[in-house]
C-alpha cells in the first residue's frame, strides 16, 4: 500500500508544477519571438485572430475537468493569448463605457488582461474615433447598445473598422465577464470570420411584424432612422442562413429595404450546458 504523501511532499509537487508552467510560458515566448521574425511585423491591421481564439476557447471548455473553476482556466488562457498578441504587435483596447463601466471593464480585463492598455470612452462614436488613427487597436462596444443611435453605420465604408468578434467566445449564465460585446478592428484578411455575418440595413416601413419576421432568421438590433417608420438595423445572420433570406422576409412583411452593407463577422456563439457540453446558441 502506497504511503500517504506528506504536506511537504504535496507542496513540493505544487512548486514543481508552478516551475514547469513558468517554463512553458517562457518557451511560448521564445516561439512568439521566432514568429515575429518570420512575419517581420509586415502585417497591417489588428493582430487579433478571433477565429483561432474562439476555437482555442472551445477546446479548453471541452477538455476541462476537476476542481479548478472553468472561469479561472479561461481567464488565464485569455491573458496569455492577449499578452503574447500584444508582444507581437502592441495595441490598445478602447471601450464604450456608456452602458456601465464596471461590466465593460470586467470584460476587457478578463479577455485582455492588465498588460494591454485600456482606454474608456463615453459612446461607440468615441471608440470608433479612437480607432481611426490606430489601425492595430481594438474597440469594444456592447452588442445590444443603441446609445447614440446606429453606431454601426460608421463601419460600412470598405476601409472602416469592422466587427471581428463577439465576446465572450463561450457563453454561460454565471460568466464573470458575461456582457455581450462586439470587438471592432481593421482586420487582417486572416482575421475575418464568416460564421455569423453582420450587416447594416436601413429600411422604411419598420413594424412589429417586420421585427418578428427578421427575428425568426437573425439577431436584430433596431433604432429609429429618418422618417417615422424608418429604422437602422444591425443584423447578425447565423451560419447556414443568408442576408438575402432576411431581406426577403422583411419585404414580405411590408418593409422597403433602402440599403444594406456588410459590417463584419464573428464566430458562432456557444453556451456551456448544465452538463458541461458546448451547445450552439442563437438561431
Question: Biggest sheet, strands in spatial order?
Answer: 2-1-3-6-4
| Portion in helices | 25-40%
Q: Order of helices and strands, N to C?
A: HHHEHEHEEEEEHEEHEEE
Query: Roughly how many Å is the radius of gyration?
Result: 21 Å
Question: How many helix segments?
Answer: 7
Q: Which strand-content bin applies to the residues? A: 15-25%
Low-confidence spans: none
Q: Quickly give the structural class.
A: alpha/beta
Number of E-state strands? 12
Distance between the termini: 55 Å
Describe this structure in words.
The protein has 283 residues and is an alpha/beta fold. The chain has two domains: 44-191, no CATH class; 197-263, ACT domain (Alpha-Beta Plaits). It has helices spanning 7-39, 50-63, 70-88, 101-112, 124-131, 208-215, 243-252, and strands at residues 93-96, 118-121, 138-142, 162-167, 170-171, 181-185, 196-204, 219-224, 231-237, 256-266, 270-272, 278-280. A five-stranded mixed beta sheet has the order 2-1-3-6-4, sandwiched between helices. A four-stranded antiparallel beta sheet has the order 8-9-7-10, with helices on one face. A hairpin with a 6-residue loop joins strand 8 and strand 9 (231-237). The longest helix has 33 residues, at 7-39. The radius of gyration is 21 Å and the shape is elongated. The chain starts with 6 loop residues before the first helix and ends with a strand.
